[in-house]
Amino acid sequence: MNTAVAVAERPKLIAVFADRYGLEPERMTATLKATAFNTDKPISNEQLAALLIVANQYKLNPFTKEIYAYPDKGNRIVPVVGVDGWVRIVQEHPMFDGWRFDYEPQEQAYTCTIWRKDRSHPTVITEYMAECRRSSDPWSKMPRRMLRHKSLMQCARVAFGFAGIHDDDEAQEIVRGSPSAATAADRVREVLKRKPEPEAAPSVDNVIDMETMQPRAPEPEDDTNETQALTEYLAKLSKADESAAIELLDLARTDLKSDADYETLVSAYRARFNPEPTDD
To answer: Quick one: 186 and 157 in the same domain?
Structure first.
């Protein structure tokens, strides 16, 4: 957004929001800077103006976290709309004509269907757990609800053309410094600091071909849910870059029931990316 435009819009927007919520403009400015941004760094008037422009466009309330923002590295912002905000802007759209959510347990996928009054066919978007799940508390505690939210957001974006707004996962990826990603990386690094103990876990060669990095088919007697889960993780690890592999390792810490299986996955990571264990 052009900075000159932001500065020109700021007084008018502050007055509009101050009047809407019954605060003095100066107090409104201070309150929003303190509460509507996920950062400890000072917020500029231009950044605040950018957030208010988006909030005003979609009629979202920054005080109830319907909208908030992450500052990026270029003195700009990444606007984030919480699930309550998405629900409201969809339901208040004049062309909205209903929605439906369907969960497929086998695929671990949520499908959102949205109907518009001015279209003969609905918009249908499916989101998959394997592609969306993050190593954060909300995803760990209520993964299905988070996946349903993700399907709603993506379907709403396609159905109504909502632009310039993101969900929290997307925003963290955009600013390239998300707290959840940093936490995941830190947790995995703690694991990788340990010296590997080959005797403590089954050989990785039993479940993965080290030349092709492809998972071996499990023996019939080992064809359990646990073995299948490990095999799936190894297959994903074989195609992931190092950043994605770290996310997989962190997610597997809670998904894999066996410590030995997790150590096998760590061994596969070491074999592929060759991180040097340390004694720190």
So the answer is: no
